[in-house]
Design brief:
Number of strands: 0
Order of helices and strands: HH
Structural class: mainly alpha
Distance between the termini: 95 Å
Largest sheet: none
Number of domains: 1
Strand content: under 5%
Helix content: 40-55%
Number of helices: 2
Mean pLDDT: 75
Radius of gyration: 32 Å
Shape: rod-shaped
Length: 95
């Protein structure tokens, strides 16, 4: 038996489930497995050298910056409205 691998050799007085689930440690998946994709081929990996991905990332960054600026302006408007409402309320209560 290989070092680092464990397999039950005797089937006597053990459940069938233990015989089906043999624990094998040290098994390493190679990069040539069918599920492995190189970073250039993997659509989930950001590749700045790919023009389409770089354009998409740039557009997403511009949309994000526009959203942040719009949120900032909206917050300023809300704060100005709250301040004017407070001042109006103070004026009404003092008179």
């Amino acid at each position: 038996m290989k070092k680092g691998c464990w397999q039950r050799t005797s089937a006597s007085n053990t459940s069938p489930r233990l015989n089906q689930n043999k624990l094998t440690t040290g098994a390493v998946r190679t990069i040539f497995d069918s599920c492995y994709l190189r970073p250039e081929e993997n659509p989930r990996v950001v590749n700045y050298t790919d023009p389409a991905k770089a354009y998409t990332i740039e557009q997403a960054k511009l949309r994000y910056e526009q959203k942040v600026e719009a949120d900032k302006q909206r917050k300023q408007l809300i704060e100005a409205q709250i301040k004017s409402d407070y001042e109006r309320f103070e004026k009404q209560t003092t008179t």
